Amino acid sequence: MKSAPLRMAVKIAGWTIAAGLALTLLAGAGFAAANLWVWYDTRDRIYTDSAMCPVADVGVVFGTSFRMRDGSPNPYYAARLDTAAELYRSGRVSHLLLSGDNRSIHYNEPIAMWRDLQQRHVPRSALTLDYAGLSTFDTVVRAKKIFGLQKVVLITQDWHLPRALFIARAKGLNAYGCAAWGQQSGSDTYVNNRELAARALTVMDVYLLGRKPRILGEPEPLKLSAEEPAD
pTM of the predicted model, to two decimals? Predict the structure, then answer.
């Protein structure tokens, strides 16, 4: 027969395993529910055909690295700029807010977008740079609080748009998403899985943690003409 201490140890181990399984199931259910919420809340505001995107004064282009880790061109970056330029040329937007990371003199997403959009025949006067778009959350909140925007078109990949639009609605920004299409990276599975986790975290950021942008500052209402930025 098992001794009393051994029986108690077995019971405790059983309770620990059961509790662990329950917590795992609960976390999994919460993860799935958060993703479903983000998708359902934004599904009718995403347009995959740029010709059908709603007209707005400003399109917000989300920054990303123009190079992959292996040094090859980033197809997501090119697709965002191609779509932004097409929306401008077709008159769907009249101005573009380029928001991204400006971490050093050697890495500056807004400047890279500014230069490359001019090569796509978008004039400087139609471009404004946001150097503090350090995350999707920061870009969306700053579009409203710093640049004073009320209605925008968000320009990024279709897998990224639900999260961006969810933040926009929660923060009172009237936004629609125009999906950037083009040659896609071979890491789509990794990117999509990472995005699922990011959506769940976004629900927590917005409704539980009260997240704030890393850099906010004073309002700078967007002017529909922009000076050439300093290098």
Answer: 0.84
